[in-house]
Amino acid sequence: MLTLERNGWSIGADAPLAVIAGINVLEDVNLALTIGRSLKGTCEALGLPYVFKASFDKANRSSTKSYRGPGLEAGLEQLRVVKQELNVPVCTDIHEPEQAGVVASVADILQIPAFLCRQTDLVTAVARAAEENDALIHVKKAQFLAPWDCKNILSKISETTQRDRVILCERGSSFGYNNLVVDMLGIAEMQRLGAPVTIDATHAVQLPGADPRTKGASTGGRRDGVAIIAKAAVAAGADGVFLEFHTDPETALCDGPSCLPISMAAALLMTLKEIREISMA
């Protein structure tokens, strides 16, 4: 089991279902607070450990015209506000080694995007920053990696930091064109490497480069599949869930087709908690 010593948030076989959830990319601080406040209240009521997630920059975009976020400085300020006003830990992505130190000064969980999980300089920079700031690391398994290949990511981090601090994340594997699939057997394979595992049910339903609204200039998604994948993964033993919400997914500035309306959060998280309890019995 991994624990954030500063606030007691935990994830692992002996902990309740962990929740890393929020919005895909920061749009404005009021939206972040609205989503975060709603999710915090739901998780507190259900007894689930909660971390707010949002990206300050989405560097991997289908088009230069796609919305990327407010950027490093403004984005970290928004995350700082959410962290202080809601009194919750926060998680955000890092894309460049030079960002690691300043991001770790705010974020409690440093997230390495799937496409970058083999970038040694980034992985080791994040490991050093996490060590210096007593943060955890959330690594998304690349769409092109087998679950057992994550051992090399863990090795790079363990050679840099003095304690276990890595959470692995399943987010689907490339399957033909414009599609991803999730092999639920991979969850146990990654857990055997010694790390707790989350399921990113939001990005697992993406259809890369297949949004009909922009004729392929952005990523599409199958929103109705999010709950299916989340429930299946928790039943398969996932230690936590990674989910993204919005007050109005149709107007979300990034990955709207894959995120859920915040109105669905309470019922879904209650169901996931029940599945977790049954699967652990």
Give the helix/strand layout.
Layout: E1 2-3, E2 10-11, E3 18-25, H1 29-46, E4 50-55, H2 72-86, E5 90-93, H3 100-104, E6 109-112, H4 120-133, E7 136-140, H5 150-158, E8 166-170, E9 173-174, E10 180-181, H6 185-191, E11 197-200, E12 206-207, E13 220-221, H7 226-235, E14 240-246, E15 260-261, H8 265-280
Parallel strand pairs: 3-4, 3-14, 4-5, 5-6, 6-7, 7-8, 8-11, 11-14, 14-15
Antiparallel strand pairs: 1-2, 9-10, 12-13
Helix pairs in contact: 1-2, 1-8, 4-5, 7-8
Strand order of the largest sheet: 3-4-5-6-7-8-11-14
SSE succession = EEEHEHEHEHEHEEEHEEEHEEH
Q: What's the CATH architecture? A: Alpha-Beta Barrel
Strand content: 15-25%
Average pLDDT taken over every residue: 92
What is the CA-CA span between the terminal residues?
Answer: 18 Å
Q: Segments where pLDDT lies below 50 for 5+ residues? A: 214-218
Defining traits:
281 residues, alpha/beta, TIM Barrel, 8-stranded parallel barrel, two-stranded antiparallel sheet, 8 helices, 15 strands, globular
Structural write-up:
- The chain is an alpha/beta fold.
- It has a single domain (2-280), classed as Aldolase class I (TIM Barrel, Alpha-Beta Barrel).
- The chain is 33% helix and 20% strand.
- The strands form four sheets. It has an eight-stranded parallel β-barrel with strand order 3-4-5-6-7-8-11-14, surrounded by six helices. The chain has a two-stranded antiparallel ribbon with strand order 1-2.
- Helix 1 (29-46) packs parallel to helix 8 (265-280).
- The two termini are 18 Å apart.
